[in-house]
Amino acid sequence: MNDYPELKVRLIAYTPDPEWVVAVAARLCYSSLDGEELLHSMTGDRVGPMLKTVIEKGHFSVLEHAVFSFLIEGVSRVTTHQLVRHRIGCSYSQRSQRYVREKEPRFIVPPEIRADEEKQEEFVKFCRQGYEAYKEQVASGVRCESARYLLPQAVESKIFVSMSARALYHFFQLRTCERAQGEIRTLAKRMLKEVQQAAPRLFQKAGPPCVGEGSCPEGEFSCGRIKKLQQKEDAAEKE
Ligand SMILES: Cc1cc2nc3c(=O)[nH]c(=O)nc-3n(C[C@H](O)[C@H](O)[C@H](O)COP(=O)(O)OP(=O)(O)OC[C@H]3O[C@@H](n4cnc5c(N)ncnc54)[C@H](O)[C@@H]3O)c2cc1C
Fold first, then answer.
1. CA separation, residue 183 to residues 2, 27, 159, 176, 191 (Å)
2. Are residues 5 and 109 in contact, defined by beta-carbon separation less than 8 angstroms?
3. What fold, for 8-94+159-207?
4. Residue of higher predicted confidence among 156 and 35
5. Atom in ligand 1 nearest the alpha carbon of residue 174
6. CA separation (Å) from 207 to 59, 100, 169, 203, 223?
7. Catalytic amino acids?
8. What is the band of 1 on the pLDDT scale with cuts at 50, 70, 90?
9. Which atom of ligand 1 lies closest to the CA of 181?
10. What residue ranges do the domains of the chain occupy?
11. Which atom in ligand 1 lies closest to the alpha carbon of residue 175?
């Protein structure tokens, strides 16, 4: 089931050959070669092992040399607010509610509300009331920047996001975890899928801590996935 059908995530640009770039940066740290030799020495077959080494050793600063840009649409203001809390190695450009007048916006309805027709109708009704009040204020001459206080957080937004691979690792750790809120978790998982397609070796260990690090910091709030993963690992070892 698609929990957030309006959500659209597009990876639109990234550092050319991101895996090679990160591998060269890493090799420079450990090599006495000069620049030209260094560049030539990083042949295709050496990239994968180099990435594996730096990721396993936690030498994450070299991942900052690869940057990925996403265009995200069909996302609520609730979620963009959570997203922009990620400050380090992240850049954002969001459609302005100050300068852009909302015209018949879509409202993002969380799945637990969408599952119940009556609740969904109520939810959309309240959203529309907020929007109608906004429209009336704007029609009476109030600036969008003031009238927008009436808009619900469910209102759809669009945001352009660029993050370094290091920032993405951190973001995925926190936001692909089952303990993260549903919409941002859905967004994070889509972003993870995109970057894993673009740079599979670079993001081989990206994901929640249970997947990336084999541990879970959630204690009694753990979703239980870590236990299942450990059981799977134990079974594989016995085979
Ligand atoms: C499940 C969940 C629940 C949450 N609930 C709440 C909540 O109830 N209320 C709330 O306000 N937020 C909440 N948040 C947001 C959270 O507190 C962070 O603001 C958000 O996840 C961004 O993480 P970050 O600060 O690590 O990321 P970034 O801002 O990208 O920072 C990355 C890392 O850089 C370092 N860093 C950044 N800034 C500083 C600094 N000033 N000093 C020292 N080191 C720094 C830290 O190591 C940090 O982890 C929640 C997040 C999650 C995942």
1. 11, 38, 15, 10, 12
2. no
3. Gyrase A; domain 2 (3.30.1360)
4. 156
5. 53
6. 17, 35, 7, 8, 15
7. 175
8. low
9. 1
10. 8-94+159-207, 209-239
11. 53
Distance 166 CA to ligand 1 centre (A): 15
Express each pLDDT in 161-205 by its tens digit: 999 999 999 999 999 999 999 999 999 999 999 999 999 999 999
3-state secondary structure the chain: CCCCCCCEEEEEEECCCHHHHHHHHHHHHHCCCCHHHHHHHCCHHHHHHHHHHHHHHCCHHHHHHCEEEEEEEEEEHHHHHHHCCCCCCEEEEECCCCCCCCCCCCECCCHHHHCCHHHHHHHHHHHHHHHHHHHHHHHCCCCHHHHHHHCCCCEEEEEEEEEEHHHHHHHHHHHCCCCCCHHHHHHHHHHHHHHHHHCCCCCCCCCCHHHHCCCCCCHHHCCCHHHHHHHHHHHHHHC
pTM above 0.85, yes or no: yes
Q: Decide whether any atom of ligand 1 lies within 6 Å of the 65 Cβ.
A: no
pLDDT score for 237: 77
CB of 88 closer than 6 angstroms to any ligand 1 atom? yes
3-13 tens-digit pLDDT: 999 999 999 99
